[in-house]
Specification:
Elements: H1 3-21, E1 31-36, E2 39-42, E3 58-61, H2 79-88, E4 94-97, H3 117-126, H4 129-136, H5 142-151, H6 162-183, H7 190-195
Antiparallel strand pairs: 1-2, 1-4, 2-3
């Protein structure tokens, strides 16, 4: 990593923290990407901005397998938006995605509504060190599964009815678990099992 890339990574982290400081982003819902050479640098999934380090920024090649990335951290689950824009618009150097928490507001009204009692209680609970420790596990649990689901095309449901949606989710979960089992080497082929000598009785 050269000095220019390190500085760009630092700028991305600083911009993420600025969004939180200005109150225009909540948690890790927003994300930032920037073009650097033949790569796109993007914020990782599930890493709180106040704990993010420049080395945590995920490089994704602009040329090569679509959706591939480098490093141990998973890129933001919105990486497709960022990457597609970078590929389609070579003049674009960076992109900021920041979903509003309460949707569009008429002119003259504040963007964020006042927290009700339940939201205020949730914010206080999520501000504890214990909650931060649990939240950090998202990158290795649900965020990874979410990214895999998107990579495999599970972006939206093309059927109607809760029963059909549940069936689709169940099939995806079964396929995901089977693929992970094979990947982790826990499923031996039938031929390999048959070739093993039986224990003496």
């Amino acid at each position: 990593m050269d000095k220019a890339e390190l500085q760009l990574r630092r700028d991305i982290v600083a911009a993420c923290r600025s969004m939180n400081a200005m109150g225009i982003n909540q948690g890790t819902s927003g994300n930032i990407s920037a073009r650097y050479g033949d790569h796109m640098l993007i914020t990782p999934s599930g890493v709180p901005y106040d704990e993010m380090d420049p080395k945590d920024i995920v490089p994704m090649p602009l040329k090569g397998p679509y959706g591939s990335y480098e490093g141990d951290l998973v890129p933001s689950s919105e990486w497709r938006f960022h990457l597609d824009i970078m590929l389609a618009r070579p003049e674009v150097g960076c992109r900021v995605y920041m979903p509003p928490a309460t949707g569009a507001k008429p002119a003259g009204q504040p963007l964020w509504r006042a927290d009700d009692a339940l939201i205020a209680e949730w914010r206080q609970r999520m501000g504890t060190p214990e909650a931060a420790q649990i939240y950090r596990q998202r990158a290795a649990t649900i965020e990874c599964v979410n990214a895999l689901a998107r990579n495999r095309g599970l972006q939206r449901f093309l059927m109607r009815g809760l029963r059909r949606v549940r069936s689709a989710v169940l099939w995806f979960a079964l396929a995901h678990n089977l693929m992970r089992t094979v990947t982790l080497g826990r499923l031996q082929p039938a031929a390999a099992r048959a070739a093993k000598p039986m224990a003496a009785v």
